[in-house]
Every structure is written in structure tokens, then in C-alpha cells.
């Protein structure tokens, strides 16, 4: 990381020019040695292999701004013109050989390996961005505030290179008004705010699918033992991508009360993301499974507030407590050129549908009414084509499918219903702290409420029948001896229709976590003015959730998030003890 | 003040070339639109990629054998009892539109269609740009080659699914999302037209490029497509021309028709090539068709996933007719030692594996997933050409034969190699011969369907007439293209 800036004053106190340069440089050296080994089955290798990767990244940001500030009486204002250039480049080079002797670090070089079995590859990514912007601010006695901004942003990631994004913000420090004097005994500060603005987002994957031909072995014909050079196209078209634009309206207030012991903020927001960019699956025939596209319009709206209490008791004891909460509602408002976008394929079947009127990436599947206790009961159910029918199997609810829209006595795609959103409707944060003489304590907690998780690792049984069950499933699973009315039998998991998205696999993903706890003691005036602080801290010492998995934090793509396949690892807790010494 | 001017200059510089600054091509790629279409050496590049698209990756090979092989009475799921329950559905005819292997098989062939379309479209550009007559001739040949590959993909799609969308050029995602299916007749017309281009424009052979598709490959594919389309005269005509050419013959030993040494040999008309090129690791032109059927728990270097194994019905069939030579080569038996000196481990999960993909240890040089990667997938052998000829004639194909072969001669040439006495070319004898000769080569299920015998033979496995002749249109594709109708019996 390197940064530098230069400032030139053109008209003293009024006109200023500033240029700032920022360079982020990263370098990675990765080595991977796989010895000869045998695990069992088909896992193992009789030849060792060694690979090395060198990678570096450069990110330059150059900002130039020209700022004019002035005032006429109590009216002060600034006008700014600016320009920003961003250039990012990441490259890597990888080499691999087999049979590299592993005596010591000095022997682990590719040149020592087998010349017959070697590969090399490299790759890179590049991003360029360019912006021009103008901003005006107005301020009357710190009481009335206004900001107007217009940006023109250009990005190499989009085919429609340029977007123009205006925004306005207004503020009113109402507590400074004379008519509020009467409240000053208890209200220290109150500011009302309102803003509206558009913002372009180019923090999306570059649109690189097949602007490019592909060469290499996978595009090369083989005749006998001769490999012929080839260039194929993964697909030969791409979408013409336009800027993803977020339009946000925000109304809020900042306040402080009771001698500023209690302070807080409250905001109502409405964010509409237009031309939202993500990979969406396409019908096969184009040679790829999905394509980056401007897919539609998504709404996020809600209320966000935070409160903070800070006080002292006596001379030595001070404490604080704070909380923040965000209530969010997510909804797809429009999709471009299609009714829905399936996603989150598990065992070949989509588990999410992104559809107008529902949250993005919402879970869809069958609703489980119960568990059939016998084959006879299953057959008598009146839904005769539940083809995987038997004791211990799910009884799915027949919602629709008939011409009149009612139940048709069959379980079909029409019976897949909305099963919840992977997004929480409430996010909470809490923090506590106190200081008493040399002793300090702090604790940060957070919680997510209402998000759903698709426990897809339970369905992996279909692919890997020897895989483990989780304990909850193990003890509750249906069996002849211990029948269950909610859990299926393990045997049912191997059937196609059972091992699909349904309400049993969708679990509540709400969680509460102590993010960090820290206790410290500071010794002052050690050896003169020195200070020594001794502390112990715990990161993520406690996480509570009811979900039957290792963690509720499961990533994904916008249309397929919260799907817990078997490759999700638990979060670790970190305990630290330390000493800070200052002289 | 001097600094100020320098800085303003920097700011201006940044602004000057902003259009070029934002128009950057993806790093580490070749421009697909930037191919130099004037250069003769570039002509084959997209066709090469179309060939490459035919090779089956690890998962693709499993999907392929699961859907095209396992449903027949000669093939069982194999592997271990619990593994691959979605493959087992093909043994029991319980698969539905959501079966993942059906979904992926659809993609395998459409990916080949896409690669071939790209090659065909590229040829139009080369045609305009190249100047020499030799180059123009090569463009013509390469276009025909790409069309032949496309025909192979569509023929598989039509025999699996019946009506499918006909994608004959690059289409954007919106067009694909609404593409209607074409009728089976129109699809066959399209396939014939693509193959006919190959018959007309491809050379009879390529020097030093064994396995490259020729005029005879096109004729062989046409014979096979016509057989499935019950177009007896066409089938007989093409088979007759191949026989009459005198360029092809049966390997004297049945076993050699499947050996690594005799790949692209005199019996070969169409193969999908695979080789690890003697390398232990690294990206190689691999087709996993052999690997996926290799002995499960066999231990390196004789170890695969063990899918699609010979059924007891097939073994009984061989035994019942005293078909010992072909039985020995078709079955790879647990605990037995091969003529090449490999002993198949007693630890293997199944008593028998597919002997036609057997690759001796000495070829299995790759360190991991070694087995069978030097095995070329046989699509059409000369033995099948003889049987197509016999079957077409027996069904009344009226041609004036250039080869002078009768149906009996063709049939008995195949039998003689198997050490069996001559019989007359009745339909039943031809059907049985096809079963014995082509066992485990992904023909049997489709043969039973076109003979109208599927319900009788496969009924006990769960086959339902009026439904299982075709596979369901994959659920995920119907979700992405609402214009796709479901095949009868799979509407749920």
C-alpha cells in the first residue's frame, strides 16, 4: 500500500487543487506438494506432484479534485469538480511437475521434477474505471445543509460504458432553531435528513463470457496421438451489459438527549436496484449453462435505527451500551424477458426461484404434510402418483395442477410453493462496555432473524450414500421401530422426488452470536510515562442457532444463497491473550 | 505554481483516451471475432474444438452410460449397491424429468451442437476471406466435417428425446428461451442434410490423421441413422457402398476390434478419440468412457468406477448360443487373468465388467484415475455396417448391390469371426447377432425400441409401452424454455 497526495492553493482560502494517488500492491507465492499416498478406494496417487503459483495484483487509483469554497455572510458553499481513474490488474503464473524430490526447501523447485510430466498456465484479470463528478454544498449557519452531486462513471466491465448518476441531500439541524430552545433541557441535538440519489455499481463480475475464443487441450482434436490446435467458443454471444443502478430514497434523523448520554439515528430507506447484474441460467444450446445479464429490478426497503447510551458513575466508572437494528424487506419488482429465474440446483433440480413479488433467490419446493407410516397409507393418500411411495416417505401437499387451478391428485411442478427467503428480515447488533480504573471490558453481539437455509447436505445422501448423517437426523429419522411424523427414513433420501427442495429441508437460519469479548487491564505510569495493557479476548466464543449444520453463514450467488452443500465449514472461535506496551 | 500545471496535465491525459481505456479485451484469451480468416492454417481451429467437444469428461461419461446403456437388458447399473441411486433409476425405469443424468445428457449433445454451429459459422467467414483454391476446398471440407459432428449430436438427441429444438446457428439467450421443438421428421431431414454434405465434400482419407472423419464416416453414420429411422433403402445403400469400397474389414480376432493397438484400424468407421499421451498428469485429451466402466475397487492401475456392467441375461444369452469368443472379450471377469497378463482383483464390487473397454495395465500410466483413458470410444464398427446391411435387406431394401453381398454373406462374415457356423439371414437371426456383436456398445436399448420388442424384453425391468420409448425432456430445460412440451407419460 502506497499513497501520496499534493495540494495546490490557487486562490488562498478559496480555490484548491488536490491530486491523490493510491497504489495497492499484493503478491502471493503459493506452493503445493502432494506426496505419493493412498487413502483407499480410488483416492490416492503413486506419483508425487508439486506446483508453484506466483501471483501479483496492482490497483492504482488517481483522484483529482478542484474545490472552491466561499461564503456570503452566513451562507457558505463549496463547489467541487473531480475526476477519478482506477486501474486494476491481477496476474498469476502456475507451474507443475511430478516427481519433484522433497529433501528440503532447497530441493523444492520445478526444475528438479520430471520433464515429461509438466504443465504451466497463467491468467489475468483487468479492470479500468473512470469517473468525473461535480458536487455543490450549501450551508447556512450549520442549520440548513444541502448537497447536490452529479457523477459520470465509466467502467470496462460494461458494454454500455457510461452512466450518469445524480443525487441530492438535505439536512436541517432543527435543535438550533429558536423555537426549540424550550426543549434544550432534555434534547441536546436533533437533525432531520432527507436524500435521494442514484449510484452506479460496477462491483460485479466482468462480462467476459465469450467475447473470447478458447484454446488449449479442451478445444483440440486428437487424431491418433496427434493433438491438433483448436479454438472454440464457449458460447459465441454475450449480453450487452448496462450499468446496475441503485436509486435510494432516505429520510432520517440524528438525535442526542439527556446531556448527550442517549444518542441515536433512525432512517427509513427505499433502495431500488435496476438492471441488477448476476449470472442467470440459460436454455442449453448456447454451450454454457449461465450467462451474465441485466436481470431486472429488486427492491430493498426498511427501517434502520441505532441507540447508544453512555454515562459515568462516580469518577472511576464509565459504561456504554448500544444497539442497532435493521428491518429489511426484499422483493423482486420486475424481471427482464422472463417469468422467473431458477437457481440453486441440488441433485439437478432448482431449489430457488427468483420471481416478481417474492424475495430474490427465494426457496421453492414441495410442502411436506407429514410422513407416511405405511405403504398402505401412502397409497390411500389420494395422490397416487407420488411415485416414491412407501413407509417413511414424505407426503407432499397437492396444491395445484388441474385445469381449474385446483389440486389434480398428482405431485407435479405446479405443487412447488414459496418456502421462505434466505435473507433475514431483522439484523441486530448489540454492544456493551465499561471502564473502571484500569479495568476495561467490551462485548459485541449480533443476530440475524428470519433467514432460511436449505440443508442440502442432508440430500447429498443421494450422491454419496456412504456420507454421514447429522446427529439430529440420525436420532429422529423414521424407522419401523421408532416411527416419526416429521423426519423421513434414510431410505427415502435415495429417491429422486424425496431428495428435492421441500419444506423439511428448509430450516430456520436465525442465529445469535457473541462476536467479540475483551477484558483488559492497563497499568499506567510504568517506568515514567509508560503504559502496559494486558488483555484477553475471544472472537466468536459463542454462537447459538437451531439450524442442523455447522454454521448459518453460507454464501452463494444472488439467486442461490443459503444453500448448505457439504462443502461449508464451521466458523472458528479465536482466543487471544496479549500485552500492549507503550513507552 | 509549476506543480499545479503538471497536475492539470495529468488530469487531462487521463481524460483524453477514455474510450480506449474502457474498451479492454478479457485477458489471456484469443479473440473469437478476431481470428484471422484469411489464413489457411486457421481454418481447422473451430472444427478441432468441435471434435474436442465430443469427448466425454468424467461426469459426462457416467451420464452417457447411465442413460444410453443401463436401460437395456444387457447392462446393469454396476458400481456398488448404494452408489449412484439416480443411475439405478435406469435399471428400474423409475427415472423422471428431474433425473440429473438425463439433464446432463441433454447438455452433452447440445454443447456439441453449439461447438459445431460455431465451426459452421466460422467457415462462412473463411470462405469470404481465403483466396487460394486449396484453401477454399479446405473450408468446404471443414464445414462438412463440422456438420457431420452436428448430425451425430442431433441423432443422439432425437433417438433419446424425440422432438427437440433445432438450433442450427448461434442464438441469444432470449431466442433460446422460447425456441420451439421441431418434429422428428424435420430433425431427421436436418440430420440427413448435414450428413449428405459430409458424403459429398469429405475426402476418402486423411494422411497421418487416423480417426479423422471421412466420407466413409459420413456414409456409416447415415447408414446407422437410416436404420433407426427405418429407412431401409438408404441404410442398405450406404452400407453397400462402404462394403464395396474394399477399404474396411473385420479384425481377424474379435478381441482386437477393441484393443488400444488397433484403434482407428480397418474395422473402424467412427470413434471418439482419447489418449493420456503417456503423461502422468496434466490436461490431456481424455474421454472417460472406458474409465467410468473400469473395475471398481480393482486397485491401480486397473481401477475405474465400475458402472454399466454386463447383466446375467447377457451372459445367459452368450452361453445359450455357445458364443464363447465374444463372451470372453465382452466380459471382464473378477479374479480372472486377461491374455495381456492382468489379474482383475478379487476385491472388485461386481463379478463382471465391460471387457470391450478393457485397457491393459501398461497403458494406464496416469497417476490418478488411470484406467481406460487410452480407450477410444467406438461409435460405428465395420461389423455393424455388415449387420445394418443384412437387416436392411431382410426388411426388403431394394438396391442394386455394388458389393455383391447378400444378407446371408454379410451376417455370416460377422458370425465367422466369432467362430460360429453360418445361418440364414432371418430377422431374428440378425437381431440376435446384433445383440451378441454389439453388446454393451449403447445400441441394445434403442434396438429393442425400434424392433417393437422393448415392452416384451424390458417389461420385467419396469419399461412401460407408450412412455419409455423416449426419455423425458429434462425438468430444468422446461423451466428455462417454456416452449418445450413433455414427452408422453412423463407429464406427472
Number of helices of chain A: 2
Oligomeric organization of the protein chains: heterodimer
Number of strands of chain A: 35
Overall helicity of chain A: under 10%
Q: Which two chains form the greatest contact, residue counts included?
A: A-B, 103 and 107 residues
Rg for CA atoms of chain A: 30 Å
- Figure out the total of helices of chain B: 20
Short description:
With 583 residues, chain A is mainly β.
Please name the defining characteristics of this protein:
heterodimer, A: 583 residues, mainly beta, 17-stranded antiparallel β-sheet, 2 helices, 2% helix, B: mainly alpha, Serine Threonine Protein Phosphatase 5, Tetratricopeptide repeat, two-stranded antiparallel sheet
Question: Could you describe the 3D structure shown?
Answer:
Chain A is built from 2 helices and 35 strands. Chain A has helices spanning 375-379, 471-476; strands spanning 2-11, 15-34, 37-40, 43-45, 49-72, 75-98, 118-140, 144-155, 162-173, 187-201, 212-214, 222-223, 226-227, 232-233, 244-257, 262-274, 277-281, 290-294, 296-313, 317-335, 340-346, 349-355, 362-365, 368-371, 394-396, 417-420, 426-436, 439-449, 452-454, 506-508, 511-526, 530-545, 556-557, 560-561, 574-582. In chain A, the strands form 9 sheets. Chain A has a 17-stranded antiparallel β-sheet, with no helix packed on it. A 4-stranded antiparallel β-sheet of chain A has the order 21-22-23-26, with no helix packed on it. A two-stranded antiparallel ribbon of chain A has the order 3-4. Chain B is mainly alpha-helical. Chain B has 3 domains: 37-202, Alpha Horseshoe (Serine Threonine Protein Phosphatase 5, Tetratricopeptide repeat); 231-271 and 380-460, Alpha Horseshoe (Serine Threonine Protein Phosphatase 5, Tetratricopeptide repeat); 289-375, no CATH class. The longest helix of chain B has 30 residues, at 100-129. The model of chain B has no long low-confidence stretch (mean pLDDT 92).
Amino acid at each position: 500500500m502506497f499513497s501520496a497526495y499534493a495540494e495546490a492553493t490557487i486562490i488562498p482560502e478559496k480555490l484548491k487543487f488536490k491530486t491523490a494517488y493510491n497504489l495497492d500492491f499484493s503478491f502471493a507465492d503459493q506452493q503445493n506438494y502432494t506426496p505419493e499416498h493412498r487413502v483407499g478406494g480410488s483416492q490416492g496417487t503413486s506419483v508425487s506432484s508439486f506446483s508453484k503459483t506466483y501471483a501479483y495484483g496492482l490497483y492504482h487509483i488517481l483522484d483529482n479534485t478542484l474545490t472552491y469554497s466561499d461564503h456570503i455572510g452566513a451562507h457558505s458553499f463549496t463547489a467541487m469538480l473531480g475526476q477519478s481513474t482506477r486501474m486494476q490488474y491481477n496476474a498469476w503464473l502456475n507451474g507443475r511437475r511430478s516427481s519433484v524430490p522433497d529433501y528440503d526447501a532447497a530441493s523444492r523447485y520445478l526444475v528438479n521434477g520430471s520433464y515429461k510430466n509438466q504443465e504451466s498456465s497463467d491468467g489475468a484479470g483487468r479492470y479500468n474505471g473512470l469517473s468525473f463528478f461535480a458536487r455543490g454544498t450549501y450551508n447556512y449557519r450549520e442549520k440548513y445543509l444541502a448537497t447536490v452531486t452529479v457523477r459520470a462513471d465509466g467502467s470496462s466491465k460494461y458494454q454500455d460504458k457510461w452512466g450518469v448518476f445524480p443525487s441530492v441531500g438535505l439536512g436541517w439541524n432543527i435543535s438550533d432553531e429558536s423555537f426549540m430552545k424550550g426543549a434544550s433541557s432534555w434534547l441536546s441535538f436533533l437533525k432531520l435528513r432527507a436524500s435521494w440519489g442514484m449510484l452506479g455499481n460496477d462491483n460485479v463480475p466482468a462480462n467476459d463470457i465469450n467475447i473470447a475464443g478458447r484454446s488449449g487441450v479442451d478445444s483440440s482434436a486428437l487424431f491418433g496421438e496427434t493433438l491438433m490446435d483448436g479454438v472454440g467458443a464457449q458460447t459465441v454471444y454475450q449480453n450487452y451489459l448496462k450499468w446496475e443502478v441503485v436509486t435510494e430514497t432516505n429520510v432520517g434523523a440524528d438525535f442526542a438527549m439527556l446531556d448527550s448520554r442517549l444518542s441515536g439515528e433512525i432512517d427509513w430507506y427505499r433502495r431500488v436496484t435496476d438492471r441488477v447484474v448476476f449470472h442467470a441460467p440459460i436454455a442449453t444450446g448456447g454451450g454454457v449453462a449461465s450467462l451474465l445479464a441485466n436481470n431486472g429490478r429488486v427492491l430493498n426497503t426498511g427501517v434502520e435505527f441505532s441507540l447508544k447510551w453512555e454515562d459515568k458513575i462516580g469518577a472511576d466508572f464509565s459504561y456504554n451500551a448500544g444497539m442497532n437494528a435493521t428491518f429489511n424487506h426484499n422483493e423482486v419488482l420486475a424481471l427482464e424477458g422472463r417469468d422467473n429465474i431458477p437457481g440453486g440446483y441440488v441433485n439437478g433440480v432448482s431449489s430457488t426461484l427468483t420471481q416478481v413479488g417474492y424475495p430474490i433467490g427465494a426457496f421453492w419446493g414441495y410442502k411436506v404434510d407429514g410422513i407416511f407410516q405405511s405403504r398402505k397409507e401412502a397409497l390411500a393418500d389420494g395422490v397416487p402418483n407420488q411415485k416414491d411411495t412407501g413407509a417413511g416417505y414424505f407426503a407432499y401437499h397437492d396444491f395445484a395442477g388441474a385445469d381449474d387451478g385446483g389440486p389434480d391428485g398428482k405431485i407435479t411442478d405446479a405443487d412447488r410453493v414459496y418456502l421462505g427467503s434466505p435473507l433475514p428480515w431483522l439484523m441486530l447488533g448489540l454492544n456493551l462496555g465499561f471502564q473502571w480504573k484500569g479495568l476495561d471490558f467490551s462485548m459485541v453481539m449480533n443476530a440475524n432473524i428470519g433467514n432460511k437455509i436449505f440443508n442440502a447436505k442432508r440430500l447429498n445422501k443421494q450422491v454419496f450414500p456412504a456420507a454421514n448423517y447429522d446427529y439430529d437426523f440420525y436420532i429422529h429419522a423414521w424407522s419401523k421401530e421408532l416411527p416419526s411424523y416429521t423426519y423421513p427414513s434414510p431410505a427415502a433420501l435415495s429417491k429422486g422426488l424425496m431428495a428435492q427442495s421441500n419444506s423439511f429441508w428448509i430450516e430456520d437460519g436465525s442465529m445469535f452470536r457473541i462476536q467479540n469479548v475483551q477484558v483488559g487491564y492497563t497499568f499506567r505510569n510504568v517506568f515514567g510515562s509508560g503504559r502496559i495493557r494486558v488483555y484477553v479476548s475471544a472472537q466468536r466464543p459463542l454462537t447459538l442457532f437451531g439450524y442442523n449444520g455447522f454454521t448459518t453463514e453460507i454464501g452463494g450467488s444472488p439467486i442461490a444463497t443459503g444453500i448448505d452443500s457439504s462443502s461449508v465449514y464451521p466458523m472458528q472461535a479465536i482466543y487471544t491473550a496479549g500485552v500492549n506496551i507503550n513507552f | 505554481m509549476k506543480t499545479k500545471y503538471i497536475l492539470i496535465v495529468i488530469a487531462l491525459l487521463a481524460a483524453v483516451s477514455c474510450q480506449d481505456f474502457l474498451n479492454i479485451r478479457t485477458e489471456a484469451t484469443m479473440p473469437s471475432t478476431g481470428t484471422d480468416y484469411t489464413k489457411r492454417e486457421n481454418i481447422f481451429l473451430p472444427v478441432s474444438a468441435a471434435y474436442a467437444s465430443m469427448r466425454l469428461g468424467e461426469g459426462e461419461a457416467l451420464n452417457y452410460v447411465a442413460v444410453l446403456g443401463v436401460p437395456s437388458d444387457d447392462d446393469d447399473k454396476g458400481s456398488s449397491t448404494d452408489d449412484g441411486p439416480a443411475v439405478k433409476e435406469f435399471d428400474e425405469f423409475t427415472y423422471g424429468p428431474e433425473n440429473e443424468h438425463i439433464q446432463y445428457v441433454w447438455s452433452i449433445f447440445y454443447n456439441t451442437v453449439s461447438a459445431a454451429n460455431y465451426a459452421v459459422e466460422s467457415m462462412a467467414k473463411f470462405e469470404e476471406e481465403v483466396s487460394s483454391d486449396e484453401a477454399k476446398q479446405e473450408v468446404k471440407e471443414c464445414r462438412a466435417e463440422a456438420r457431420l459432428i452436428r448430425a451425430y449430436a442431433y441423432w443422439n438427441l432425437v433417438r433419446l428425446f424425440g422432438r427437440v429444438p433445432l438450433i442450427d446457428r448461434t442464438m441469444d439467450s432470449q431466442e433460446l428461451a422460447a425456441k420451439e421443438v421441431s418434429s422428428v421428421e424435420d430433425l431427421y431431414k436436418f440430420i440427413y442434410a448435414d450428413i449428405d454434405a459430409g458424403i459429398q465434400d469429405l475426402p476418402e482419407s486423411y494422411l497421418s490423421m487416423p480417426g479423422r472423419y471421412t466420407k466413409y464416416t459420413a456414409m456409416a453414420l447415415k447408414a446407422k441413422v437410416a436404420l433407426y429411422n427405418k429407412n431401409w433403402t438408404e441404410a442398405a445403400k450406404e452400407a453397400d457402398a462402404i462394403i464395396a469400397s474394399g477399404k474396411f474389414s473385420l479384425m481377424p480376432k474379435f478381441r482386437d476390434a477393441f484393443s488400444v493397438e488397433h484403434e482407428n484400424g480397418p474395422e473402424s468407421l467412427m470413434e471418439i478419440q482419447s489418449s493420456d499421451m503417456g503423461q502422468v498428469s496434466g490436461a490431456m485429451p481424455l474421454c472417460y468412457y472406458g474409465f467410468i466402466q473400469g473395475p471398481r475397487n480393482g486397485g491401480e492401475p486397473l481401477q475405474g468406477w465400475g458402472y454399466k456392467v454386463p447383466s446375467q441375461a447377457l451372459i445367459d444369452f452368450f452361453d445359450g448360443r455357445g458364443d464363447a469368443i465374444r463372451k470372453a472379450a465382452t466380459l471382464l471377469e473378477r479374479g480372472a487373468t486377461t491374455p495381456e497378463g492382468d489379474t482383475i482383483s478379487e476385491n472388485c464390487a461386481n463379478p463382471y465388467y465391460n471387457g470391450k473397454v478393457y485397457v491393459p495395465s501398461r497403458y494406464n500410466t496416469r497417476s490418478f484415475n488411470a484406467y481406460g483413458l487410452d480407450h477410444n470410444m467406438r461409435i460405428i464398427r465395420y461389423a455393424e455396417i455388415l449387420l445394418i446391411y443384412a437387416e436392411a435387406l431382410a426388411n426388403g431394401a431394394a438396391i442394386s448391390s455394388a458389393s455383391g453381398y447378400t444378407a446371408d454373406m454379410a451376417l455370416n462374415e460377422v458370425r465367422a469371426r466369432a467362430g460360429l457356423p453360418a445361418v440364414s439371414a432371418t430377422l431374428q437371426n440378425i437381431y440376435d447377432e446384433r445383440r451378441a456383436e454389439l453388446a454393451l456398445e449403447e445400441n441394445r436399448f434403442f434396438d429393442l425400441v425400434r424392433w417393437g420388442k422393448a415392452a416384451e424384453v424390458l417389461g420385467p425391468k419396469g419399461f412401460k409401452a407408450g412412455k419409455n420409448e423416449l426419455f423425458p425432456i429434462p425438468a430444468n430445460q422446461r423451466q428455462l424454455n417454456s416452449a418445450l412440451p413433455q414427452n408422453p407419460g412423463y407429464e406427472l
